[in-house]
């Protein structure tokens, strides 16, 4: 299996009194590796004891806190123990306002997925889960048929890991977005952005002459022309509208390019 990235150290030493998603990741990983800790995102005496036991057994400095060396050892240990899904869900939902290495992981993995799923927006890998990160996760959730809330719960986290594993192995996962309803000139939003992405990739793969739309979420003249060209290429009524039949054909055509 190809190598993929692991959640990076967030740059802040975690210790008794710390809280947040990265603490949840430490607790989840410790527990999975045989050092039980309550997964609540609050770094208390129980987590400190579990960290000290882990550090003792791994030959690390035993201080009960999690700096870069201990963090990396935890992440690598989990990946080695569970190679089928080598990045643990941190146990806490990532919402706007979350910070740290787990957020950096989501942001960086999203950016890497853009090489295949061009509807995804480029994010700053700054460890701050703001509106941009939430918007990118809504797009990801739409593309993979998940509940669309812009948060990273277990299903979204694990789908993100699976998608990156498949991409790294050269076998990208097919998208399965729900039918968004009629899209037409003047429509806007994430569903339009996905349609534009799929049209552009199908055009590139097939060498078609119709124009490649910008992936901007705005259904204008160029997108309409691309839809008409696509419909003609697959034998659909070339009305420039993306109804249920065109959407279903377009999703299948995009998946065939993967």
Structure explained in plain terms:
The structure is a single chain. With 258 residues, this protein is mainly α. It has 3 domains: 1-92, Muramoyl-pentapeptide Carboxypeptidase, domain 1 (Orthogonal Bundle), CATH 1.10.101; 101-168, Muramoyl-pentapeptide Carboxypeptidase, domain 1, CATH 1.10.101; 190-257, Muramoyl-pentapeptide Carboxypeptidase, domain 1, CATH 1.10.101. 49% of the residues lie in helices and 0% in strands. The chain has 9 helices and no strands. The mean pLDDT is 97.
Give a concise summary.
The chain is mostly helical. The chain has three domains: 1-92, Muramoyl-pentapeptide Carboxypeptidase, domain 1 (Orthogonal Bundle); 101-168, Muramoyl-pentapeptide Carboxypeptidase, domain 1, CATH 1.10.101; 190-257, Muramoyl-pentapeptide Carboxypeptidase, domain 1. The protein has helices spanning 21-32, 45-58, 68-81, 101-113, 131-143, 154-168, 190-206, 221-234, 244-257.
Order of SSEs: HHHHHHHHH
The beta-strand count equals: 0
Indicate the CATH architecture of the largest domain: Orthogonal Bundle
How many structural domains are formed by the residues?
3
| Strand-pairing-aware structural class | mainly alpha
Briefly note the CATH topology name of the largest domain: Muramoyl-pentapeptide Carboxypeptidase, domain 1
Report mean pLDDT, rounded to a whole number: 97
- Sequence stretches where pLDDT stays below 50 over 5 or more residues: none
The CA-CA distance between the termini, in Å, is 18 Å
- CATH top level assignment of the largest domain: Mainly Alpha
Number of helices: 9
The percentage of residues in β strands lies in: under 5%
**Major β-sheet, in short?**
none
Radius of gyration: 21 Å
CATH superfamily of the largest domain: PGBD-like superfamily/PGBD
Shape: elongated
Residues in helix, %: 40-55%
